[in-house]
Design brief:
The chain is an alpha/beta fold. Helix content is 29%, strand content 14%. The chain has a single domain, classed as Rossmann fold, CATH 3.40.50. The protein has 10 helices and 10 strands. The strands form 2 sheets. The chain has an 8-stranded mixed sheet, with helices on both faces. The radius of gyration is 19 Å and the shape is globular. The two termini are 34 Å apart.
Length: 343
Amino acid sequence: MTGILRVCVVLCWSTVVASVIGCVVPDPGPGDTLPGTPPTLAPPITFNYRNPGNPISDPSQFPDAELVDVYLPAPTGSRLGMLLWVHGGGWVGGTRADVPAWVLQQVPRGYVVASIGYRLVTYDAGGVVHNAFPAAVEDIKVAIRFLRNLGAFLGASPHLTLAGASAGGHLAAFVGATPGQFEDGDPAFRAEVSAVVDIVGPTDLRALATPVDPPNIAAQLVAFYVASLLGCPQPTIAAPYTCPPGTDFERASVIPQIDVSDPPMYFGYGGADVLIPAAQGAAAAAGLYQVTGEKLMSWYDLAETAGHGLDGTALHMTALQGFIDAARDGRFDELRTTLPHGG
């Protein structure tokens, strides 16, 4: 894809964009990426986001699902950004240490980057499922409240971006699309975010849990993960289609949750992804645009030759960083109150 076409896929830049975002992202060509090597950073500070207090001196004494690693930049003040990362792993694996280079590269740019652990789906010896949906969603909403309080203490921007990849991308988009749901506490302090970045995240679980003909291992693997997330009878990778008739795939899918109240979302997908088809992101991006009537609310970045490992070496990083900077600066706020379909 040429640079011009790539920018148009991400967003149709215009004078409207310039007035809202504050700058026009130039056509950077195919080299608009970041290195795959993370920057040299100080070790993160680890907190228990469920029971906030002093930093944890020995994180190994706590479950990963209770902890958040916080990477602090040198700058402070109102332009200090907040980015919360949700790791992937099929909802059954991964840890908070799984942070891609492009996310850590936001720290020198003035972002507090936090990466959380959350409850993973498991089955015990008797086949009983634990931590199925919506356990991870509930955890992320608790972590958002923690990070927003930390940001207030640091004097950072109140505008938090939630980002994730693969299963973490699904969770980030789902959390962004469900403000006020799946959370406890004072409704005046909902776990809302100002923007979402979904990299190769599933958005329509029913489509991914449907057998393909002819069968292939990639589709079977994804269906295994979907069945696990939904707490269906314990699946196997060899024969994972174990969700019984009547399973509510929509309840845990992103697309059915999308409405005009959602924050702007950036969807990044690989055209060569054999696990999560790029159509999953395109459908979600189109759905958000349909309900808002505003292109600036729905960004779609298609890296045609990238697979499921899509990262900053293939993403359109000028556009993506412009997106999170605009969210940090509150530049989507006024836009959301004037959407053609309401706000």
